[in-house]
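Appendix B, Record 12. Input sequence as logged:
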Amino acid sequence: MNKDYYLVIDIGGTKIRSAIGDNQGHLLKKVKSFTQARAGAKIVINDILEISRQVITLTGIDSVNLKGVSISFGGPVDFAKQKILKSQHVHGWDNLNLPKIFLKEFNLPCVIDNDANLAALGEKTFGAGKKVDSLLYLTISTGIGGGVIIDGKIWHGNHSLAGEIGHNIIERNGPACSCGKKGCLEALASGTALAKNTISFLKKNSQVKTKIKSLVSGSLDNITAITIYQAARQNDQLALKIVDEAIA
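Logged structural output:
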């Protein structure tokens, strides 16, 4: 008996991924690429379509067994209208109906939602949340977001903005955020913010000794959140302080 498969896509501010999976949560194959954030949405969409074609070819599944497309987007999505509201990391997404583009390209039904919402649903269906009815899922990467599950279903809230916690102001007159405000949670504790703020600190305080520097061979601009967490695991005091402040 033939299985049904789905094309699944994750669009982030740093990476884009495409995969083929079944309704049991098993992935046959996945392809990823870097997000050309500065190039804008049009270029990124072309890249997504390309890696989607690649992953379909690599799996070699019959097109009749491919039943639909699911898109996870790293930014606010109007779920009812199936439109991206905007992206703080890549320009050109405002009010874009991406499912229409995929319907035209692959002739398959397509649904889009915010990445944290879909991650929360995945955790509820296949992961740590299988035994609970309600949960809160937090995603911390290029930005910060949240997904809320209530009674087994995604809670989108008014204007589909439930869980959009990244742009709550935590520190007045804090670091500038990509949204134009200052002191947002995302500007203080996202992976991007950790790297940016650490680079700035070390450039201004060159005398500070830290394993963060050695992990990038002194090339400060190559520091990422991964670098900081690697140093923290090695008990580096600066890295531990940065992580503690982000968590707090």
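Residues 100 and 110 are 8 Å apart (CA to CA).
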